[in-house]
Structure formats: structure tokens, C-alpha cells
Input
Amino acid sequence: MASPSRPKKPVHNVHNGVGQLRIIAGIWRSRKLSFPDVVGLRPTPDRVRETLFNWLAPYIEGAKVLDPFAGSGALFLEALSRGAALGQALDASNVAVASLKEHLGTLHCTTGQVQTADALRYLETQAASAFDVVFLDPPFNQNLLPTVCALLEERQWLAESAWIYTESETAPSILGLPATWRLHREQKSGRVYYALWQRTAENAE
Output
């Protein structure tokens, strides 16, 4: 989910305070789902999602997926559509969470769970479970990314060779993310940097 101050992402088919996102591939391919008019809430653009899931193609099927800033749920739903075994989504907005829960019901999905929660507090206080893929699209200009990444490492939320996707307003090379993470791919669209990292087992404790 995004803050009002972050760079805008393209939103398509927005009308009457409701936007639409399209699931690109998988069992729900081409399904269009609405998302609420919450300030700053914009799905990751289709072409960026397509690129990301091409990168993740060998790893997403059967994966346990975590999305702490789910927003519209575009990444979370795309992962489940493409065969992720289990998904956990969080968002601080009750409206966004209610919408995502409705989508899971519409899609008859029993492998995805979503709840209203502050991501940092949740990761710091809840009993950890190791996830294979994590999507991190926090609000910009709040310096949240280094903190949430450190919590994922310190609280053992990551599988040994987990993949972590980040969206940020600063270049991946200067984010100061955990030393156990290797930058696998990166791309820039407008003022937003998109990057995929892999946790390297040889450096992990």
C-alpha cells in the first residue's frame, strides 16, 4: 500500500471511486477485480507484475507467500493464481482488507489469509513462520523498507533461500538491506525502483 506522497502508479479503469486490477496469469487468468478508492492505494502496474512473475516463475508454485503491505492485493492474488501454496496478506486499511477478503471469497480461494494489521508491529510481535516469497511495497518517504527487512531477518520470517521483492523511491544499491540478501534483478519505471532479492543460505545464520 502506498502513501499519498509516493510517486503515482498508473491506474486503469477507474470510475466512481473504484478501480480495477487484472490478474495476468494462472487459474484466475484475465479475471478483473475492483479495489476501493483508498488514498494512495494503487496496484503494481501490469507490465511490472508480468516482469516480476517471469523472474519468479521457477519458484512461485508451491511457495508460501507473505505480503505485509497488500494494498489492492494485486501481487498477493497474482501469486495465488500462479500456484502459491499459501498466502498471508496484511494491510493497515480496514477498507482494503475487506475488499481483499471479498475477492478471496469470490475466487473461492481457501489458501489465502488476510487481516488488518500494522506490518511492523505484526512482524515484531507475532510468532514467525518462514516464507519463501515476500512482497514489500511499503508507503514511501517513511524509511519503512530497511526496518521491515531487518525484522524479516531478525524474527526469522524468511526461508533459507527466500525471494524478496521490493518497491522503493531510492536505488536498491543504497537501501542498506540485510547482508544476507543478494540483488538478483532490478528495474526502474518513472521514479520507482523495482527489485528482486534472494536470501543467500551461505551467509545466513
Q: What stands out?
A: The CA atoms of residues 90 and 115 lie 5 Å apart. The first helix runs from residue 46 to 60. Residues 18-199 form a domain with the Rossmann fold fold (CATH 3.40.50.150).
